[in-house]
Amino acid sequence: MSHSETTNREFAEQHMNIVLGRLAGPDASPRGDQVDAVHAVLQPASRVLVVQATGWGKSAVYWAATHALRHSGAGPTLVVSPLLALMRDQVSAAERAGLSAATVNSTNFDEWDEVFRQLDNDTLDVLLVSPERLGNARFAARLGELLARVGLIVIDEAHCISDWGFDFRPDYQRLARALLSTPTASVLATTATANERVTKDVSDQLGAHTVTYRGTLARTSLTLSVVPGLSPLERYAWIADALEQLPGSGIIYVLTVAEADKLAAFLASCGHNVDAYTGQLDGDSRIAIEERLRNNEIKAVIATSALGMGYDKPDLGFCVHVGSPSTPVAYYQQVGRAGRAVVHADGVLLPSDADERIWDYFATASIPDPKSADKVLVAIAEQPRTLMEIESETGLRRGRLEALLKILAVEGVVEKVGTAWATTGERYVHNTAKWDDLTKVRATEADIMRKYAHGEGCLMAFLQIALDDPSPAACGRCSVCTGNIPFPGAEPSHEKLMLARAFMRGTDADIEPRKQWPKGVSRKGTILSLNAGRAVAFADDPGWSLELAELARSRPGEIPQVMLDGAVATLGRWSKVWGTRPTSVVPLPALDMRSNRQLAEHIAKVGKLPMHDVFTWTGAALPDDAASTPVVAHLEKVLTIASDHDLPRGPVLLVSTDVRTRWTATVAGAMLRDQGMPAVLLLALHLRP
Questions:
Q1: 145, 166, 177, 392: which could form a disulfide with 519 (CB 3.0–4.6 Å)?
Q2: Residue 179 and residue 447: Cα distance in Å, rounded?
Q3: Which run of H or of E encompasses 398?
């Protein structure tokens, strides 16, 4: 059969029926819009964008198109997919559809040669890759040959090639240049979360003749709710209650790795069968958790966004968010995991007072600053530099520097050479209009989520309008439409609240010591000055949120008694693993020492230890939001230590109300070690991220 015959709609429907029957059973039948999409893809060198709700069957469309194209003698399909979990699901789904599929990704380097052999022998129907593979030299060497043969290119989660997703996966930006230029293959882009602006942006990148299929984003099986006004501790207690009645199994989304681990541990202590899922897990652990959830062997997975796009569990019964994502796009993408193949599922948002502060950070953290870009390019102009060297020379903080380098790499201005970064010779031109527009867009989207969290209208219609659904309508099911909030209602039980308080206050935060002195300061090499430390509370700790707020409001030298008691309790738990008990207490140096001295005096009195106030801070405060080198250099200038001959030659307990970068403690610890102290242990009331 010739490729030209694939233009027949009956041919498209035939293969759609075959594939859908294998995926969903012999009684399944395709919808007309699915067949239309397959038919469009089968046109020679077509460009097709499908924007449909989660659960619509977008993957079935590209499997059917692949089946038809391979039947017609076309080359394999190349699928660009953002997440390992999604790729594993897609390989499995493709095989169920009767297609041979494989993936090349960062976890299976040993299998690449075999995959390439299958491609060479034309025995592979589908190859799935992450966008980062496009920048990998080993894969790039095969890319030109592959693009000359493929029959179809699929860009899954295509909103990521628009400006919306540039910082989620900057390498998606390479797609327009690397993949979309192929003149022979058809290209299918799919997403469930594109508003009109993103749809137009993606369509423009695909080409002038792009055909777009867009349907309603409403989900009749999904009941949305917002439970406002809960404190961090009340949110944890609410979830512990809710898991007793929420249907089936589901996902609970949190914003940080630390919170995922802490919430999972608390829920497990309440008798719930849960797992934590974060980007820090190895591939095998992720797969195991995904399968346990898929098989309903656990009640819930407490996850960061690492388990979001593309995870396929049709009978997922609920999706709870602890804190709001910053955009309706991200929220719909995650909450839409639930209720695909069940009559009823719950999507619950527990908004946090800290949400907007987090939104503000992420709204700007990945936007490139032209002055910072110039600093980086000057730093590596003469020779390649490592990340630490660039950090030291530019004064940029590590997180912002890494984000900036990614963007510069995607722009083709810099490249990774081994462990170092080098210029490519391309001139960097900062697109001010683009980044200003994006900043405004993010502010608008954050405002939409603010209104959603406040319940200012039907929740489903709110998401539809935010995503420019052509037919938004009140759902009649959400908490705004009905006034009903899922069990336990507007607030948790007193029992769970007390359990949450006791658990959270019994869990201390570890303070990891700094490992390496930055370049450009007097001390060199590995840091040996500071032992592992402990903090009473970390970040917006649910067990201490009200008390931390009180501490922040208190005047210097007037620490709330409850925080002093918390410090003593932390020391009691910590002391069980000490090799040697501290022999003295020293307040951490600060511009204003009053609170640190008060804490040190209290600990010394309770622990019956001498307190030695040996540090002096002379000069200005630390530079705000600076890199490690200027911070340490400043500390070396402003800190002095008195020669206290009464200071016992034993482990020192260094105490502070507040710790963030750990550099002050590290430098102070080094000074104490210089005076012969064998160990320095750091205790803080609050460890800030």
A1: 392
A2: 35
A3: helix 398-410
Q: Is residue 275 a contact partner of residue 298, using CB atoms and an 8 Å limit?
A: yes
User: Mutual orientation of helices 561-574 and 594-607 as an angle, nearest 10°?
Assistant: 50
| Lowest mean pLDDT across 79-83, 135-139, 505-509 | 135-139
Map tokens 């002038």 to a residue. Answer: 208
| Residue 307 pLDDT | 82
Q: Choose which CATH entry (3.40.50.300, 3.40.190.10, 3.30.870.10, 3.40.50.450) describes domain 3-214.
A: 3.40.50.300
Half-sphere exposure of 560 (CA within 13 A, CB side): 14
Query: Residue 585 phi/psi, 5° resolution?
Result: -120, 130
pLDDT of residue 98: 93
**And the tokens for 639?**
């800190």
* Architecture of the domain delimited by 506-687: 3-Layer(aba) Sandwich (3.40)
What does residue 43 show for φ and ψ, rounded to 5 degrees?
-70, 140
Task: HSE, CB side, 13 Å, CA atoms: give it for residue 118.
Answer: 16
Closest residue by Cα to residue 313 from 50, 85, 16 = 85
Angle among Cα 309, 310, 315 to the nearest 5 degrees reads 115
Q: What's the CATH code, domain 371-434?
A: 1.10.10.10
- Six token digits for residue 610: 């001498």
Cβ within 8 Å of residue 554, ≥6 positions away: 560
* Residues 6+ away with beta carbon under 8 Å from 620: 591, 634, 638
Q: What is the pLDDT of residues 3-24, one digit of tens each?
A: 444 458 899 999 999 998 998 8
Residue 8: is it exposed, middle or buried by C-beta count within 10 angstroms (0-12/13-18/19+)?
middle
φ, ψ (nearest 5 deg) of residue 367: -80, 120
Model pLDDT, residue 3: 46
Fold of 222-358+440-504: Rossmann fold (3.40.50)
Beta strands in 101-172 (DSSP E): 101-104, 126-129, 152-156
pLDDT of 173 > 70? The answer is no
Determine the pLDDT at residue 465: 85
Which contiguous run of DSSP H or E holds residue 250?
Answer: strand 250-253
Residue 329 to residue 317: CA distance in whole angstroms = 21
533 in Cβ contact with 684 (< 8 Å): yes
CA-to-CA distance for 307 and 55, rounded, in angstroms? 17
For position 177, what pLDDT does the model report? 62
Contact 516, 387 (CB under 8 A): no
State the span(s) of the chain assigned CATH 3.40.50.300.
3-214, 222-358+440-504
- In whole numbers, what is the pLDDT of the chain averaged over residues? 88
Model pTM? 0.75
Residue ranges matching CATH 1.10.10.10 in the chain: 371-434
Query: Alpha carbon of 483 to those of 225, 243, 422, 490: distances in Å?
Result: 9, 21, 58, 11
- The mean per-residue pLDDT over the stretch 233-239 comes to 96
Indicate the helix (H) or strand (E) that contains 48. Answer: strand 47-51
For residue 82, pLDDT beyond 50: yes
Cα separation, 169 vs 173, whole angstroms: 8
Exposed (0-12), middle (13-18) or buried (19+): which is 399, by Cβ within 10 Å?
exposed
